[in-house]
Structure formats: structure tokens, C-alpha cells
Amino acid sequence: MWLGDRACRDAQFRLAQALRPGDDRLAARFLALAVACPSEPVGRRAYCVGGYKQATAQLNHVETSDYPATFGDFAALPDHISDFGPIAGLTQAAQRGLVAWLWRWLAAPVGDAGGVVGDVGEDACETNDLVDWEQLEDDVNRRLSQWRDAPGDVTPSLLEATARAPAVRGPHDAPGPYSFDNPHYLDLVLRNHDHFGGEAWRNWTGFHSVAQAVAARPCRDSLALSPGDLRALAVGNVRFQQVNWTELDSRVRRQLGCQLQGELAAQRVALWARSTDPTLARAAQPWLAQLSEPEGEPLRQAIAAALASLSLEGAGLHFLQDGLSGGHLRTLRAGRSLEDSRYDHDTDGQAGLASTLVTRAGPRRLVAFGDGWLLGRSGRCGDLDLEQPASAGEPKRLTACLLQHQRALLVGMGSASLVDWALGGALDKPDPAICKATPLAHFACNFLPLAPPQAGAWAVAPHSPVLPRGDLPVPPPPFTYESLLTALAIDGAGNATQVGVRMEFLSQLGSTGHWLRSWDVGLLTRLQPRHGPDLALEAAHLFHFRWAARFLVHAGPVTTMSLYGFGEDVGLRWGLGGAAGLTLLPEGWTKLPLELRLSYRIPVILFDSQYGFDRRSIDVPAQWIEFAFGVAFL
């Protein structure tokens, strides 16, 4: 989060220097950044204090928020969500996700970002004691001020693995708490190969390309919130709260929706202008006056489109940062177990990895440390110049300098990506003069990678100066599984025990995997029943809530048909009932595809072949407390 927010602030000030009257497109994107970027410099005070993030922005009402959403959350969330829409015409972002959340935050009169965003952000801030926030800010400022036009290049003599010390452990992902905050988290971790190696870089190019396209199109061609979402946004708005969004043609609904979203964005820009750095407010002054006027409608809608696209650009920064993480450069994730990949990831992340980044400024060598060590307490670098041949000296000091270099490079890359987004793309044009046209274009060209970062610091062949267009990653398939269970149930009244087998077919409801449903079929018999042998066939339609990644609570209706007697007087019974219980899938602990289930069932017999649908047929033969275990095929 900190890297994303720090890059956002840097991009803001660079864009403020370039704003000129009449450049409405750049102004709209600058004002979208104004809503999302932290309102104060993130280095002025600790980013996290007491487990709570201190950085604030205008994405949600700061005065009444336990957790203020900022641009850095966009960059942090792709580890925790897979839905980024809805964006019209974009299959990979069709599902309701980040864009819809953004507008709910903007419209909410009180409260924080809530949900997965708030829970995950608070957990991330609980490790703030591992971070020297003042040192991070100093590191970034020192290096970026030294580099100015292009990132630095570490001299080969300072790349030797024996010359540096391992990095100190810093804040790191907490899989346990995250699996409770967001049940979908473990599903994403198990197929996160697209966060590694060249896939991470290609995903960044996809988000970057799509974000530029969304910002460039008219708002009505991109923003496609549902009637329910628009109705929620219009609450309290005199102009729009009486609109029947359901009955409107989709084109008209989008047009009116963009007017509503433009108003919400303009309100937050006005709040920002009253509290931001005077330098930024002065740069935006020619456009601020338009926001409350009728002629400001095109600007308001352009800001709305830019905000939606900015959430995609922010998600893309996650992959840009992952692509330069030491634990992601050569770890093979696809086709390998999570344990093996995590071991390789952590080893390279701590030790650092000599690497190469290729920009239009040429190849740049660095030592890349990893996620859990990048922001750890590193000590002071002092005046050691990494670009000059020199004796490495103290290994810990060299590690501090190499971390300083990488931190500044990550912030510079993130800022350059945002600048390129605001410019509408400089790197996708083959003309080399583009990169010299303005200081902004020069900055973007010299910090953005033209190819996936590589493990190994060597001279590389020149790459095409054009950044390729990309597409969003494919969302993961819905969470489903099938299971085969053996069941043992006791009657709460102490009567005969029931045994049998069950088959369960479970599928996901919605896009986030919190709610699921299943069809459950069981074949069971009672041991030593009072009225002779019986055989029951049960079918249930159960609804499940994932309280944690592999812990589910379920309830639903059950129908039962049983045969009893099995002699000359064989009889048939049929009834309905209910079931509720708990399910545990401990495959992450046991490395076996197990399912354990504890449930309560109460069948109510409504038909008996001996009496028909007579009241004498009505019976509650047992109240079953059942334990089932077996194999689950995820």
C-alpha cells in the first residue's frame, strides 16, 4: 500500500507542473488522482499507527472512517480479489468488483471502505512496528532526487552475493488472518502464477492498456453499474433519487449514471481542493470553478471515467511491483506446490537477487529483495555511491543501500506508470522524439520497463522501444468441489445409530466465493431399528457461507424417502426436514483432500404407505447428530 500511495503523490506533483489551460484531458486525470491519492505526504507521519492506516484520501469520508481507502489499496488488492468491474464490453472485468466498490465509497455519507478492503488493510497495518517509515521516505527522496532523468545503475562490483548481508524481515502477508478476512484469498493464492516472472509484467501491461482505453472513452461507453448500484448511489440526491433505473434503456441508464457519478466525483474534488497542498490546488484552479457549473458536465464525466480507469491502473501497479520483487523473478509458480514455491520465494526475497531492468535509458542493474523484506528496518546507507566502482565495505550497509535503490526504483516506476496513464501513453509510440517532447514523457520513458525484469545482471540485447498492448488476466474459475463421505449419526433421543455414504456437489454463488450452494445425496441405514431394517435416500439443497477459506457453515431443506420392514410388510415413508452444520476442508494442513462435517438433521415424516397422508403418518423418527468424513475433490 505504501509504495502505491507514495508513487501516487509523486505523480501528482509531476503532473501539477505540467498542467496548462485548455488541457482538459490531463486535468481530468489529475483531478481523479486528487480524489484517490493521500491528502498529505505519506512520509510526514507514520503510515500505520496502532494497527490503523493514517494516510487519508477523498475516496470515502475521512471524518467518519475507521479505515480510509486510498490509491494504495487499489495496488494491494489483486492478491485478495479477482473482480474489477463492471466495465462495459470487457469480459475480464464484467463482474461487479473494484469499480463498483469505488462508487459506493464515494457515495457513502458515513463509514469506512469496509468489507475485504478494510479487513485486509487493517491486518496489513498491524505489522507497522517492523517498518521505519521515516527511513523509507528518506530513502525514496534521496535516490529520486539524485536520479532526476533516469534510474541509477548499480556497478557490477557491488552486485556480488558475498558482499551483502541478508535483509531484515519486514511486514509480510499473513495467510491465516487473510483467510478469515477474505475466504477467496486462499483460492487466489493457489493459482497466483500470474504474479510471477514475465506473467506479472504482462499483466501490468494489460491493466495499463485497459486503464488508458477506459479513460479515453466517453463515460457512457465504459461505466455500466447495475440499476441496484445506481439506485444506491442516488439516495439523497434530489436530481436522481426518483429515477427508475430498472426501466431505462441501457444506453440512457449509462448516460444518466455518468451524470450522477460525475456529481459524486466533483463533490470529492471540491473537498480535496479545500484541504490539499496549495501548490496542487493552484495547478487545478482553472478547472475547479467549472465543476459546479452546467458547462462543467463534460469535465465531471471525464473525471468519473478517469476514476474508474484509475482503479484498474492501480491494480496494475501490483503486478509491476511484483515483477521487480526478488522472490518473483525466478520462482517457478505454475505447476508447483504452494510450499515449494513459497520456500523459493522467501529465500530469494531475503537474500536478494542480482537482476536487470530494461528501460529506454538502457539496461539497469540492481539487487532485488522480496515482498516480506523490502520494507524491513535496514539501517542507514550513508554516502555510498552504488553507481561507482568501490569496495563494498560493511555488508549490512551495502544491503541498506541496495534496498534504498530498489525502494526508490519501485516508487519511480509506479509514478511513471501513472504519468504515462495520464498522458494517454508515451511508450506505445515508436517515434523516439515522443520521449523528449516533455519532461513528463521523458520521465515515463526512462522508468518504465520495456520487457519483463530478468534474474541476472548482464548486458542484454536491445528491446523494442514500444511498450506492447496487453489484456487483463483471466479471472479464476468459480470455486467448486465434489466430495464422497462416510457418515455416522446418532439420535439425540438415544435410539438406533445411522450409517451410510454421501455425495456432495458444491458450486459458487456470486463472484467472490463467500456464498455457495450444494446438492447433497445420501444413502443411509439404521443399525438395529425398532421396526426392522430400513434404508433411507436423502436429497438436500444446502446453502453455505464461507466463514474462512476452508471453513463453511451450511443450512437448507432436506427430503427423505425410506423403505422399512423388508419382508412381506415392506413400507415406504416420505418426508421433509431441515439440516444445518459446519464443514472443514483441512487440505492445507494435512496435504490430503479431506472433508470433515458436523451437522444436525431433523426429518419430519409426512407420508407413510400404511396410512397415506393421514395425520397418523406424521412423525419425527429421530433428531440426527451426524459426523461425516471423506475425500473432497477441489
Word description of this protein:
This protein has 634 residues and is an alpha+beta fold. It has 20 helices and 13 strands. The protein has helices at 2-18, 24-36, 71-76, 98-107, 115-125, 133-147, 175-181, 185-189, 197-216, 227-233, 250-275, 278-288, 297-322, 326-329, 338-351, 371-374, 395-423, 434-437, 439-447, 587-590; strands spanning 48-49, 52-53, 353-359, 362-368, 454-455, 481-491, 498-509, 515-526, 534-548, 551-564, 571-584, 594-608, 624-633. Strand 3 and strand 4 (362-368) form a beta hairpin. Helix 2 packs across helix 11, helix 11 crosses helix 12 and helix 13 (297-322) runs antiparallel to helix 17 (395-423). The chain is globular. The protein starts with a helix and ends with a strand.
Spell out the blueprint of helices and strands.
Layout lengths: L1 H17 L5 H13 L11 E2 L2 E2 L17 H6 L21 H10 L7 H11 L7 H15 L27 H7 L3 H5 L7 H20 L10 H7 L16 H26 L2 H11 L8 H26 L3 H4 L8 H14 L1 E7 L2 E7 L2 H4 L20 H29 L10 H4 L1 H9 L6 E2 L25 E11 L6 E12 L5 E12 L7 E15 L2 E14 L6 E14 L2 H4 L3 E15 L15 E10 L1
Antiparallel strand pairs: 1-2, 3-4, 3-5, 6-7, 6-13, 7-8, 8-9, 9-10, 10-11, 11-12, 12-13
Helix pairs in contact: 1-2, 1-12, 1-17, 2-11, 2-13, 6-17, 9-13, 11-12, 11-13, 13-17, 17-19
